[in-house]
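Continuing from the previous page...

OK, I double-checked the sequence for DUF4174 domain-containing protein against my notes and this is the correct one:
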Amino acid sequence: MRVLNRLSVLLLLLASSPSVSYPFYGLIEPHRTLIFFAPSFDDKVRAFERLMLVHSCQIDDRDLHPVILNMQDLSDSQGLFSSQEILKLGQKYAVDTNEHIAVLIGKDGTEKFRWRQTVNINELVDVIDEMPMRKAELKLRGNRCSI
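Thanks. Re-ran it with the corrected sequence; updated structure tokens here:
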């Protein structure tokens, strides 16, 4: 019975943690995520994809996983979320379905920064590099890329 109580408390703590709310695989492989909410697949989405591709070294070095959420089709670029989960993410981050919004999620599962319309790569790198976890990473392994 004592083991069952401890297990129940542990599950309750895990379920209430912010990292469970976005997404579950973050518990397995901690990372940062940049969610780009878009009303449809349009020029701004293509520009975001190009930006992530051009700066892939900086993105990878910072353990950043970009994902695009198409709010019209309720689909995502990585095939990670159901339509219900996409709607919940839109509600959680208070995003209108007609907006282009990028939300940076830290390794702890909380929102760190957001951009309207387009992401500024220099600002993105600066925001991440100021995070305590990123500073610790830099001490351990250094910076493999620079802009």
